[in-house]
Amino acid sequence: MLDPYNRHITYLRISVTDRCNLRCMYCMPKGQVTFMPREHLLSPDEIAEVVKVAARLGIKKIRLTGGEPLVRHDIVEIVRRIRAIEGITEICLTTNGTRLAQLAFKLKEAGLSRVNISLDTLNPEKFTMITRGRLTNVLDGIEAALAAQLTPVKINFVRIKGVNETDEEEVKKFCAQKNLQVRFIRQMNLRTGEFYPVEGGDGGNCQICNRLRLTARGDIKPCLFGSSGFNIRELGIEQAFMMAIRHKPAKGEINDSHSFYNIGG
């Protein structure tokens, strides 16, 4: 698929849920989170049908996101269903890592290619302050991902002004010792259109953007920093894709219809 700016769209990010078992300060601020009813989430059958159409239209890479995708009880089945679809060459998953110790080998067996894991500090107290979770769970998840060969394992470090600037070097050294690839991400703001290229990755570079997004309720979105979306249940899957491609902007602007926790970042 080519968009209006001649970019070849080959990558679909699928948010399988808006729920998460952590409450990171930059993603789910206290008192600012409203979850959709579970019955509105796309089912494994619906996700598989979307990916079948996507593959026929030229999508090759799938990334599963959330919220936290591993809180879905059927996440292994979703991966297995996607892996069976002809034309999909890579299935990745972005996670907070807290449930990887239990699921890494099952996900690998189902066909998951690799994972990105969030890690914003190696200080246990600071980690709890940022996420309201436990650092040990994430470190166990990283070890499980390596053991299951969900590689290359990539670490996402969000730079939080006034909070974790001093932690960056320690995380960088940790990643070098563990043979992890690290990506540094500046805090962004959907409402104001404040976004930046990802250091160590290709996100945030509008000129080479090759992705679409599918939300957990079935909206195909042309751009993270845009409010438009085209619902597969209302329009049909192929028509929703065609409209999203047609409306993909040259560059991001603002998104006043979603938050990071329910669009998958």
Features:
265 residues, alpha/beta, TIM Barrel, 9-stranded mixed sheet, 8 helices, 9 strands
Number of domains: 1
% residues in beta strands: 15-25%
Describe the global form.
globular
Class per helix and strand makeup: alpha/beta
Fraction of residues in H or I helices: 25-40%
| Helix and strand sequence | EHEHEHEHHEHEEEEHH
Let me know the largest β-sheet: 9 strands, mixed
**Number of DSSP helical runs:** 8
The averaged pLDDT comes out at 94
Low-confidence parts: none
Give the spatial strand order of the biggest sheet.
6-5-4-3-2-1-7-8-9
If you compute it from the alpha carbons, what radius of gyration comes out, rounded to the nearest whole angstrom? Answer: 17 Å
Give the class-level CATH name. Alpha Beta
